[in-house]
Amino acid sequence: MAPRYFVTGTDTEVGKTVATVQLIRLLNQQKIPTIGMKPAASGCLNSNGILINDDVVAHQNATPIAAPLALVSPYRFEPAISPHIAAREADIEIKLPHILSCAEQLSEHANTVVVEGAGGWFAPLSDTHTIADLAIALEAPVILVVGMRLGCINHAMLTAQAIKFAGLPIAGWIANQIDPHMSRYAENLAYLQTHLSAPFLAEIPHSSNALNSCLNIQAFETLKLRNN
Ligand SMILES: Nc1ncnc2c1ncn2[C@@H]1O[C@H](COP(=O)(O)OP(=O)(O)OP(=O)(O)O)[C@@H](O)[C@H]1O
Ligand SMILES: C[C@H](N)[C@H](N)CCCCCC(=O)O
Ligand SMILES: [Mg+2]
């Protein structure tokens, strides 16, 4: 099975897509053919009957590897709402075995698959399953993106504890500077570096170019160490 990573975050809109895209670029740069996957994408644009999602497009723009849309994003919905509600309204059941099968087929296109969740760790996919269940089914080491803003320490600590409770390793965490005016940024970062018992992969600075940038080589070295 090709290696996989599952990217989760402290909330929705914290930079999971930015981090995923930067990781896909880094791995490809390091000669590891890597593709992104967004199993459940709500908030799509209907273009002549094809549902287009910004996260999926951003993943695709970060890799030279092409794969069918039905594999990289099997469940897409128009409204920008929780996937469990979007799916119910569309009369579609999000099935974990189907997502698993898509991930396996993607492994034929790339060496590594980086899977971006939706919302945070316990965002629901149905009345019975959450993003956590999806990560568990994929058996993927988790990368936690912390959107650095007031309140993120609590969200980061809760999420890390829940990931560990799920029995999944945290391959690392990323500090994403979503709020350029965060008070005491360095002190918040230092607290998380001390208290999150997971490797610190990288800091993503606030930048209007964040979607076109790449994680630094240190993040790669840290991930590599975890894999060996
Ligand atoms: N480092 C950054 N610098 C500047 N803007 C950023 C940065 N990271 C994220 N953003 C912006 O914040 C917004 C949310 O980021 P992003 O779409 O990556 O979040 P997400 O966690 O993937 O959200 P979702 O749960 O919808 O998938 C976007 O407009 C993005 O461009
Ligand atoms: C549409 C949005 N951008 C995300 N993709 C979905 C966020 C779901 C959050 C669910 C929740 O935890 O309340
Ligand atoms: Mg996203």
Automatic annotation (TrEMBL):
Role summary: Catalyzes a mechanistically unusual reaction, the ATP-dependent insertion of CO2 between the N7 and N8 nitrogen atoms of 7,8-diaminopelargonic acid (DAPA, also called 7,8-diammoniononanoate) to form a ureido ring.
Pfam family, any one: AAA_26
SUBUNIT field: Homodimer.
Domain of life per record: Bacteria
Species annotation: Chitinibacter bivalviorum
Keywords: ATP-binding, Biotin biosynthesis, Cytoplasm, Ligase, Magnesium, Metal-binding, Nucleotide-binding
Compartment(s): Cytoplasm
Residues reported to bind ATP: 13-18, 55, 116-119, 176-177, 205-207
Residues that hold Mg(2+) according to the record: T17, D55, E116
Needed cofactors: Mg(2+)
NCBIfam families associated with the record: bioD (TIGR00347)
Top-level class of the enzyme under EC nomenclature: ligase
Chief site of localization: cytoplasm
Residues forming the catalytic site: K38
Gene3D superfamilies membership: P-loop containing nucleotide triphosphate hydrolases
Residues at which substrate binds: S42
Protein name: ATP-dependent dethiobiotin synthetase BioD
Keyword Ligase: yes
